[in-house]
Write a structure and sequence with these properties.
Radius of gyration: 30 Å
Number of domains: 2
Strand content: 15-25%
Distance between the termini: 67 Å
Shape: elongated
Number of strands: 7
Number of helices: 7
Largest sheet: 5 strands, mixed
Helix content: 40-55%
Order of helices and strands: EEEEHEEHEHHHHH
């Protein structure tokens, strides 16, 4: 983040020493336009103590103070301005997510991948017409080729895709034809596998 702001990182966990003793530790030592900054980093919200610590460490090191944090209140910003402590919030440069938000994004991405490769949904049955349309998509080189193979015009095929999407056979999201072709092929392969398993299960039950 500091790099994107034009700073050069000189050191991390920099110790300020006096008469052989460590009197302060600076999270990041940075430089910009010939001026050095003592940067204090807070993973969460900054408070007044964070501002005072950044200011004190910078004074001991003879540098300009800077505080990087996730968020700071107006009162903290006001106090920092009085002490000439620069505050940079993570949110100005990076989107930081709560665990629940990250979980939701990962789950959505996984569902999209599973849909794209035909693994979702699990419980949608296909009739002969569905199979015919999916086979046309899976074996054609492009959208127009699929329409010709299915003896449809482009609008008719578009309506078929919308119908399959509404039923949950195909993803609701817009897909490139390459992804649509892959998805259709995977759905057919999965359906064939499930039907084989059903036949095997029925046969085993008969023998049992």
């Amino acid at each position: 983040m500091l790099d994107s702001m034009g700073f050069s990182i000189l050191a991390a966990n920099h110790e300020v020493r006096s008469e052989g003793e460590t009197i302060a530790e600076i999270d990041i030592l940075a430089e910009k336009d010939g001026e050095r900054y003592a940067v204090e980093v807070k993973a969460g919200r900054a408070n007044l103590s964070s501002v005072r610590q950044a200011y004190a460490n910078a004074q001991l090191a003879g540098m300009r103070p800077m505080l990087i944090c996730k968020k700071a209140s107006d009162a903290v910003h006001e106090s920092a301005a009085q002490l000439d402590v620069s505050i940079v919030e993570f949110s100005e440069y990076h989107l930081l997510l709560e665990p629940e938000e990250l979980e939701s994004i990962v789950k959505t991405c996984m569902e999209e991948v599973m849909e794209q490769y035909g693994f979702l949904p699990y419980n949608v049955s296909l009739d002969d017409h569905d199979r015919e349309v999916l086979h046309g998509l899976a074996t054609a080189d492009d959208f127009r080729g699929a329409a010709v193979q299915l003896e449809m015009n482009d609008d008719d095929l578009g309506r078929e895709l919308a119908r399959l999407s509404d039923r949950g056979v195909l993803p609701q999201r817009s897909l490139s034809f390459a992804d649509l072709k892959r998805c259709a092929g995977s759905i057919l392969a999965r359906q064939e596998l499930l039907e084989r398993l059903d036949r095997i299960e029925a046969l085993l039950q008969q023998r049992g």
